[in-house]
């Protein structure tokens, strides 16, 4: 749904701003509220509240309407982020989260003006009408005014904004662009860049095993959505080479966590790079994924003497004896199946049981994939951390509370586990 909205926008179709921005929420929602329809309904609800509080607003001039709306927003605390230290908090980039939270903290991206370091709202009078309600000649340019509803209820005058631009040392020739209306696509790009900046600069540190709630929104889903947005909605001044720099990061996320989206990449991203070296790289990456999906899996039964010695099963949760991380077993080999360089680097032969012990493929709470010697695996009664529970949900059918294991969905490979 989100990707289709951005594709329509890139094709020149009209997409409401709230739907274009709410598309980011779709990558992190899971079972929470905040899809596109709910975002639109929330905004309609705010509009209705304004009408109820200001019953004569329909008869007001465009300038008066703008001020009445700004007054309502200030009175009800819809004024963005109060604490500057929270500015780069990842959740503040999502319009659905802002509308569904009590504090309604959000980066001010709903206001379409490209002023540097701050975003102002541009209010335009209807065609043929002045901001004070007077009729204008048909050929007259539309009147506009600037507002800063995150800071005040009053109008911001263009002369003051130009003075700020002069103080910044920006050339006068850039004023029209900086004080002009931003497109919906540019608002999406701004949000995507802010999401990436938030992840890079303020990644919260959580105790992965003991926290009661997982970090929300989840950084991986947020970054994945931001990468899609930047690839699907390129800046007109951005070269194909510049845009392609996002491609490896998106494909890395795709291979690790979003394999079901391969078809979306083939449908919507590949055509944008056709005829370039980037399409060749993309095709090769997609081919590897497709081949991996189609290759017959090796069946590992517990019937031989060697396999009967494998102590742990797919789906079991464990703690690493040395590093203390929590993980879940996703596969096993009766002895180390890695190459000699890896075994040498990892010191496998220095282990007390060496290479001729069972080794386990494991998914770990920090989202990494490990290959663990049996002597380093400790069966645990520890409660499964929320991050591991969420990750495992993508690889297993369900969690069984009775056996304290995840139920395998790869019975074709490990039929006895």
Description:
With 417 residues, the chain is an alpha+beta fold. 40% of the residues lie in helices and 11% in strands. The chain has 16 helices and 10 strands. The strands form 3 sheets. It has a 5-stranded antiparallel sheet. The protein has a 3-stranded antiparallel sheet with strand order 1-2-3. A two-stranded antiparallel sheet has the order 9-10. Helix 2 (17-25) packs parallel to helix 8 and helix 9 packs across helix 11. The two termini are 37 Å apart.
Strand content: 5-15%
Order of helices and strands: HHHHHEEEHHHHHHHHHEEHEEEHEE
Helix and strand composition category: alpha+beta
Q: What would the principal axes of the Cα set say about the shape? A: elongated
User: Order of strands side by side in the largest beta sheet?
Assistant: 7-6-5-4-8
Report low-confidence residues grouped into runs of 5 or more. 108-112, 204-214
Distance between the termini: 37 Å
Specify the helix fraction band: 25-40%
Rounded to the nearest angstrom, the radius of gyration is 27 Å
Mean pLDDT: 82
Question: Quick one: biggest sheet?
Answer: 5 strands, antiparallel
Number of helical elements: 16
Count the beta strands: 10
């Amino acid at each position: 749904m989100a990707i289709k909205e951005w594709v329509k926008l890139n094709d020149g179709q009209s997409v409401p701003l709230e739907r274009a921005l709410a598309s980011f929420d779709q990558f992190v929602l899971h079972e929470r509220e905040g899809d596109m329809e709910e975002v639109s309904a929330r905004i309609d609800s705010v509009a209705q509240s304004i009408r109820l509080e200001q019953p004569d607003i329909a008869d007001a001039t465009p300038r008066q309407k703008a001020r009445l709306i700004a007054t309502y927003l200030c009175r009800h605390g819809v004024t963005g982020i109060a604490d500057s230290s929270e500015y780069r908090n990842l959740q503040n980039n999502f319009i659905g989260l802002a509308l569904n939270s009590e504090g309604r903290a959000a980066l001010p991206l709903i206001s379409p003006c490209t002023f540097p370091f701050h975003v102002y709202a541009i209010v335009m009078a209807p065609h043929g009408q002045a901001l004070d309600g007077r009729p204008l000649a048909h050929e007259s340019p539309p009147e506009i005014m600037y507002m800063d509803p995150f800071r005040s209820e009053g109008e911001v005058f263009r002369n003051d904004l130009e003075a700020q631009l002069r103080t910044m040392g920006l050339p006068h020739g850039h004023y029209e662009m900086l004080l002009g209306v931003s497109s919906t696509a540019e608002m999406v790009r701004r949000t995507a860049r802010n999401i990436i900046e938030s992840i890079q600069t303020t990644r919260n540190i959580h105790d992965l095993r003991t926290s009661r709630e997982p970090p929300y929104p989840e950084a991986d889903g947020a970054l994945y959505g931001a990468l899609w947005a930047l690839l699907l909605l390129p800046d007109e001044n951005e070269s194909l080479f510049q845009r392609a720099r996002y491609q490896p990061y998106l494909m890395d996320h795709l291979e690790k966590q979003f394999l079901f989206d391969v078809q979306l990449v083939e449908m919507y991203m590949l055509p944008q790079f056709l005829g370039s070296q980037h399409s060749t790289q993309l095709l090769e990456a997609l081919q590897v994924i497709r081949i991996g999906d189609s290759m017959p899996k090796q069946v590992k039964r517990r019937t031989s003497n060697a396999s009967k010695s494998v102590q742990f099963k797919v789906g079991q949760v464990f703690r690493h004896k040395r590093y203390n991380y929590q993980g879940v077993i996703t596969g096993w080999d009766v002895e180390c199946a890695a190459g000699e360089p890896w075994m040498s680097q990892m010191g496998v032969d220095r282990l007390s049981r060496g290479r001729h012990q069972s080794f386990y493929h494991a998914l770990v709470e920090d989202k990494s994939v490990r290959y663990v010697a049996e002597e380093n695996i400790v069966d645990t009664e520890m409660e499964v951390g929320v991050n591991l529970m969420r990750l495992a949900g993508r690889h297993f059918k369900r969690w069984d509370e009775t056996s304290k294991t995840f139920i395998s969905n790869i019975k074709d490979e490990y039929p006895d586990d």
